[in-house]
Structure formats: structure tokens, C-alpha cells
Give the backbone structure.
Amino acid sequence: MNTFELISVARKQGRTALDEFAGKQLLASFGISVPRAAVIKGADEAAAAFAKLTAPLVLKVMSPDILHKSDAGGVKVNLKSAAETADAVREMMNSPALHAARIDGFLLEEMAPGGQEVVVGAVRDPQFGPLVMVGLGGIFVEVLADVSFRICPVTRLDAREMLAELKGAAVLKGARGRKAVSQDSIVDVLLKIGGEGGLLMSHAGDFKEADINPLIVSESGAVAVDARFILS
Ligand code: ADP
Ligand code: MG
């Protein structure tokens, strides 16, 4: 399926957003690393899916009704065996927060190497068209609103400046005894999302809003572990 088909399938299903698996397929087709994953319907499919992936794994609920999966008990990280995974699916299915929701299935995926969590986002400005955003994860975005924006398409220089502008930029360079993370990998993702020929320029009219939250950036690379694409 090409990226336009991916989007038209979601529209035909009456969705207002891509599900996480489709969102990650979209990212992957623009060259962004995403975890290897499988979609399962229930606990009886957990062992077969577990065997095809490399543990530890993460289990996530897929539901058009759940925006923040963790808040709803819909994310379980660090699953190390098939039995543990099947139990996690059962437990998730029985969680009260999920009872009222429509469940598409469960995403089972490999864990990204540890690193700094970064947010990459996109919004459409009625006047300027697509804008790309970057910020450091967690409280940097939520409390401190430490983010920078540019109008698309961005150049490599723009992307570098976006990172340099962040008040928390030092965190990427390895503040407080932590290792520096690969800023080039973040720049690369910003170009694949917001650059010439990137996702936003190629799909200008398709999305009202999008984000990768988080992109996990290690010393050597960056993996998009969550993807949200709101259709326009
Ligand atoms: P939501 O934002 O809907 O609550 P996420 O998919 O972002 O759910 O998962 C919540 C958190 O779990 C992430 O912020 C990240 O810290 C961790 N996480 C999720 N998927 C992975 C993964 N594949 N590898 C490592 N950590 C992950
Ligand atoms: Mg998230």
C-alpha cells in the first residue's frame, strides 16, 4: 500500500485519525525508523507474534477512542516472554478504562534503545501551510513549552537552528553526566517530516495535525515509538 492508499483506507473506514500501526507505516515510508511490530486481536495470538519479534516488547491498545494510551492503562513496556505478553493482553482487555472503548486490536512492538525523548509535531497554519515543531520530551514540552517551529519546507540549516534554539538544548549534548544523543538523527527526522519532498509537503492537504511523541534518540539513532496523524 502506498501512503495515499493508506490514508484513503482510513477515510473510507470513517476514521478521523490514522491508527498507530498505519501512522508508523507512513513514517517508515518516508525513511523514519519505527519499531518492528505486529498487530494482534487477542491473547491467543500473543505467542506467535512474540516469536517473530525481538524482546523486550511493548504492548499497546489500538482504539480510535483512546488518545492517551498510558492514561487509560493501554501501554505495557518491557515484556520479556510470550506468557507475560499474553497475560498483559488479557489484563489490558479487562481494564475498566478500556471497557467503553472500541478496540481495533493490540500493537506489539520492539523496545527502542534508551535515550532522550523528543517530540516532533506538525500543524497547519491557515496562512502559512504546514509548520514543523520540535521539543524535548516530558516536562520540557508539557510544562515549559520549550519548542521551536518553522514553516515548511525546512532546510538542514533550519532544522539545526530549531534544535539550537531550544532552552533545553544542553540536554541533547549530554547534561548531568548523561551521554550526548545524535542530533543529526533528529535533524534527519525533521527533514523527512518537514523538508522538501518530506511527509508534510507530500501530504499537504491530508493532515490537520500530527506528532511523533516520543521520538527516542540514542547516541546513534532515533526511533519514532508513537505516531498520531489527525486527518483533515
Ligand atoms: P501514549 O502517548 O498514547 O500514552 P506511547 O505510545 O507514547 O503512548 O507510549 C508511552 C510511553 O511508553 C512512551 O512515551 C515511551 O516512554 C514508552 N514507549 C512506548 N513505546 C516504546 C517503545 N517501542 N520503546 C521504548 N519505549 C516505548
Ligand atoms: Mg505518546
About this structure: The chain has a mean pLDDT of 95. The first strand starts at residue 37 and ends at 40. DSSP finds ten helices and ten strands in the chain. The pocket of adenosine-5'-diphosphate (ligand 1) is lined by residues 35, 58, 60, 68-70, 75, 77, 109, 111-112, 213-214, 216, 225-226 (CB under 6 Å).
